[in-house]
Task: inverse folding
């Protein structure tokens, strides 16, 4: 695999632009471990950060990040470029894994009690105050701020806390159907604000 | 496409749906290109929230991951598979509609394809609990002891050749009882099984086509109910 990968590279002249995550993932799909190490450098920070937001526990988040990144290696052959960017694909895997971990861990815990114990108004503040620091983060923060309160809280609780929309509804004391539509409306506004293609 | 289902795109893209809702919506996605497009865009939007949460990973993580990768076999690429289904021609038609890669769902009760009605009964039981399996693929078992039933959701099990199937076993009380067979045409499967009180774990093995009377190979995936 490695032999074939090397043969396809262009001759060593001018420094080539850094390969995109999509290009790296295509090489990973052909078994290229060096390409995987470069892909790791692009995606590991977001994967671990997202897992930490959802799981809170650093130890669990690192475990999940490790599983996700190895899964990216295993499943690189299944990535379909026409269905979204490589980073979006990786973070979709990461979010699903983190959420599955939260839900399996919490199954059996009384859900109402859990909702009552958490200060649910905090997540957005935490996001704005501690996590959203860089330029990209500022854009996300600005776009989140442009949503209605209900849209923003619904999206933040669903994405960063890993709540189902009925759980979000319970916490925000609104009808589940309302949360469902607010998540969609809010994401569409967020998509347009951030200029997301896929 | 109903408006009711279509509004699920956002919640689905953020994984903010129950296992039952997810399965139902994925069935719908198989038939709705506009919904697939919207889900892709909203997922990409969610991914931006993920990027915004990025942290500097500790160097140890890279070492561990690269070491894991060095000894982990990659999945082969997915190629279209045509396989004979032994039962339920209507399901064959539905598979054709969904396409081999679409997330379709089959409910199998002791090998007999039925409507997924019992699924709701289990998922809505007050004592329903979800347990993750260990091993190949992603497996989640939703158990209701009060309803004496369990629903197994499996996705991404490695594809098998035409001569083999996955067989699900209810293990406990000193023996293993078959709960049904799973083929790999679809990316996600659901299997409903009656759950005798003495069952304390579930195993999935690879067996010759048609299944075996008892497990003949080590389990590729295990789920402990204890």
Result:
């Amino acid at each position: 695999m490695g032999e074939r990968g090397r043969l396809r590279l262009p001759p060593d002249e001018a420094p080539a632009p850094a390969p995109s995550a999509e290009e790296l993932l295509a090489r990973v799909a052909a078994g290229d471990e060096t390409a995987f190490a470069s892909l790791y450098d692009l995606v590991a920070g977001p994967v671990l950060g997202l897992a930490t937001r959802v799981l809170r526990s650093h130890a669990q988040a690192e475990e999940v990040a490790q599983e996700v990144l190895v899964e990216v290696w295993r499943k690189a052959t299944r990535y379909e470029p026409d269905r979204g960017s490589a980073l979006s694909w990786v973070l979709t895997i990461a979010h699903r894994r983190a959420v599955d971990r939260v839900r399996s861990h919490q199954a059996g815990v009384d859900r109402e009690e859990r909702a009552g114990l958490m200060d649910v108004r905090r997540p957005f503040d935490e996001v704005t105050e501690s996590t959203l620091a860089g330029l990209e983060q500022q854009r996300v923060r600005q776009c989140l701020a442009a949503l209605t309160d209900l849209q923003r809280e619904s999206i933040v609780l669903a994405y960063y806390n890993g709540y189902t929309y009925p759980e979000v509804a319970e916490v925000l004391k609104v009808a589940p159907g309302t949360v469902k539509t607010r998540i969609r409306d809010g994401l569409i506004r967020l998509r347009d604000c951030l200029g997301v293609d896929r | 496409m109903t408006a009711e289902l279509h509004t699920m795109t956002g919640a689905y893209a953020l994984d903010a749906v129950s296992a039952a809702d997810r399965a139902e919506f994925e069935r719908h996605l198989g038939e709705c290109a506009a919904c697939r497009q919207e889900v892709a865009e909203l997922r990409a939007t969610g991914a931006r929230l993920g990027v915004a949460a990025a942290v500097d990973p500790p160097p140890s993580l890279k070492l561990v991951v690269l070491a894991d990768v060095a000894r982990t076999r990659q999945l082969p690429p997915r190629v279209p598979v045509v396989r004979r289904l032994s039962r339920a021609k209507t399901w064959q038609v539905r598979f054709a509609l969904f396409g081999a890669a679409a997330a379709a769902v089959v409910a199998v009760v002791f090998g007999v394809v039925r409507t997924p009605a019992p699924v709701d009964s289990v998922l809505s039981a007050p004592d329903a609990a979800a347990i993750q399996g260990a091993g190949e693929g992603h497996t989640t078992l939703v158990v209701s002891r009060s309803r004496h039933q369990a629903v197994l959701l499996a996705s991404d099990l490695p594809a098998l050749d035409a001569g083999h199937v996955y067989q699900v076993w209810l293990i406990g009380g000193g023996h293993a009882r078959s709960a049904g067979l799973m083929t790999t045409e679809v990316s996600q499967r659901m299997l409903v099984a009656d759950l005798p009180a003495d069952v304390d774990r579930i195993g999935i093995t690879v067996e010759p086509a048609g299944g075996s009377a008892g497990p003949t190979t080590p389990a590729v995936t295990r789920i402990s109910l204890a």
